[in-house]
Amino acid sequence: MERIVLNPVKIPYDMDKMELLKGLKTDSKNYEMILEIIENTGEMIKPRAILKWCNVEKVEQGSVTLMGQTFISKLLFDKLYNLEKVLLNIVTAGDELDVLKGKYSASVVDIIKYTILIETRKEVKNYISDIFGYNNIAELCPGSLPDWPVENNQYLFEMIGEASDIGVALKKDYFMTPINTVSGILYADDKDFINCRLCKKSCIGRRKPFNESEYLRIFKQNEINEG
Question: Which residues of 135-168 are buried (b: 16+ CB within 10 A; e: fewer)?
Answer without folding.
Answer: eebbbbbbbbbebbeeebbebbbeebeebeebbb
